[in-house]
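Below is a filled-in request sheet from our internal design queue. Each sheet records the structural input a requester submitted and the sequence that came back. We keep these sheets so that new team members can see what a complete request looks like end to end.

REQUESTER: design group, bay 2
PRIORITY: normal
MODE: inverse folding
CHAIN LENGTH: 320
BACKBONE (tokenized):
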């Protein structure tokens, strides 16, 4: 590990563990404004990622064990993720914020142009222009966090999103798009819709892009080295020796649900691992077991869960 990488890792750890470090950074502005701006920007990236992970847990993992020990473990895990994701070049947010703060603070390439005033942040004098830049950057981070963790508030329901119309609406919205892919696989389209419901929580746990938009990845298909399309990173659950573990994975992103179904059919029909999935017709047991045996997911109860979802889907369709 080089000295520069060690410095970056140490900084990432400090920032992730101590959000109050901003008050110490402000003291450096008078001595080296450019270096201080870089630290402020890096701090915001760490804080943003930390809050984003917390928001994801609140949204997606509310049914997890809420014991003090588990909460402590998750906190440590989130800190480690933030440290890893912000080390080195990070995700690019630091660079963007650094440029924005520099422009607002009127800093040139040598870091000159900041004039001290009597304004104070955290008990430490802070130059007026840097203070304005600090506030502007904070607003940008808060806005980005809200966009990534909350659905867009509009006056009308987005009927293109399956989660907007409930379970029966989810099925009816996707069945037409599932038909072509299902015919290619030799199975009933309802089986594909049930699988999409299991992976996406009936559309409520859809995989998001970095900007908060829908990746349309209904089936949780990861992006391997052979994937050349768009991708997005999310925290997911993997089972190792029967024990659930959280990790950050890279997933495929699509322009539409139609593209997602088409790619899903391509994955299953071209991989020898899933040959027992093909031509199952309406046999949900055979379809589900074929997916689990092929290693589609690491959950040891995956096939059982898919069968349960299919049963629920049949009830929803009858009641609708």
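RETURNED SEQUENCE:
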């Amino acid at each position: 590990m080089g000295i520069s990488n060690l410095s970056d890792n140490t900084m990432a750890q400090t920032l992730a563990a101590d959000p109050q470090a901003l008050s110490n950074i402000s003291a450096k502005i008078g001595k080296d404004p450019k270096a201080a701006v870089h630290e402020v920007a890096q701090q915001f990236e760490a804080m943003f990622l930390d809050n984003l992970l917390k928001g994801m847990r609140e949204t997606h993992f509310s049914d997890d064990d809420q014991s003090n020990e588990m909460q402590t473990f998750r906190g440590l895990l989130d800190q480690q993720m933030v440290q890893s994701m912000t080390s080195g070049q990070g995700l690019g947010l630091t660079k963007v914020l650094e440029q924005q703060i520099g422009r607002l603070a009127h800093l040139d390439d040598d870091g000159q142009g900041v004039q001290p005033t009597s304004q104070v942040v955290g008990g430490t004098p802070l130059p007026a222009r840097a203070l304005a830049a600090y506030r502007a950057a904070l607003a940008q981070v808060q806005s980005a966090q809200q966009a990534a963790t909350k659905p867009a508030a509009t006056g009308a329901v987005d009927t293109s999103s399956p989660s907007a119309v409930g379970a029966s609406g989810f099925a009816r919205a996707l069945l037409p798009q599932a038909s072509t892919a299902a015919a290619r696989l030799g199975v009933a389209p309802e089986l594909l819709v049930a699988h999409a419901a299991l992976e996406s929580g009936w559309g409520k746990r859809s995989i998001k892009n970095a900007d908060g938009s829908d990746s349309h990845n209904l089936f949780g298909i990861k992006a391997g080295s052979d994937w050349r399309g768009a991708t997005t990173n999310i925290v997911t659950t993997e089972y190792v020796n029967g024990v659930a573990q959280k990790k950050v994975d890279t997933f495929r992103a699509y322009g539409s649900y139609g593209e997602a179904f088409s790619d899903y059919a391509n994955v299953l029909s071209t991989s020898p691992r899933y040959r027992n999935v093909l031509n199952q017709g309406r046999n949900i047991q055979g379809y589900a077991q074929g997916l689990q045996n092929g290693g589609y997911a690491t959950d040891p109860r995956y096939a059982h869960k898919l069968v349960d979802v299919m049963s629920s889907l049949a009830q929803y369709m009858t009641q609708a």
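SHEET NOTES:
- Confidence is low (pLDDT under 50) at residues 1-20, 113-127, 147-164.
- Residues 3-149 form one domain.
FILED BY: M.R.
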